[in-house]
Design a protein that fits this description.
Layout (H helix, E strand, L loop, with lengths): L1 E5 L6 H11 L3 E3 L3 E2 L14 E2 L2 H9 L3 E7 L2 E6 H9 L3 E5 L2 H10 L4 E6 L3 H11 L4 H16 L6 E4 L3 H19 L3
Parallel strand pairs: 1-7, 1-8, 2-7, 3-4, 8-9
Antiparallel strand pairs: 3-6, 5-6
Amino acid sequence: MIIVISGPSGVGKNAVTKELVKLDTRFEIAVTCTTRHPRENEINGIDYYFVDEETFKKMIYEGKLAEYSIVHGNLYGIPQMYIDLGLSNKKDVIFQIDVQGAKKIKNKYEEALLIFLMPPSIEVLLERLNKRGTENLSEIEKRTKRAKEEMEERYLYDYVVVNDVLDSTVKEIYEIIVQERKLRNGL
């Protein structure tokens, strides 16, 4: 199954996905390529593949990306090989992508399961972005504006989950996925 978890910047997509993978060996995270610079605690090849713009554009030209978008001034994309490899190995491939990317994946893979992660409130999202300490005030304002736009599109998703308490959120999403597996397998 292709599973898309998206939501605004700072909502906790990465934290939720990392916890989901601990729960089930059938999950595989599709690592996103990006042209943005790594944050202090991020590891190339694990959190993202950090590439320069020339390499990214070459990947587009060669058709190596399942989807790509410009987000907050940087290029982001999912390598097609993750989908192909994961599905051929009978894995559920999890994408942590924005709304633009989710739409592209849904257009390409109709059967994709889309889950939108919402913050409990804009104020909580602002707290999380500030606490993260990786963006300046101007970037936080841009991300907050974009978050409001993205939240308006949550109705395009199969499920909407509020990420208030991480453990509860992970449990809720895992239950959704298990239920979807049963439905899709006719159980």
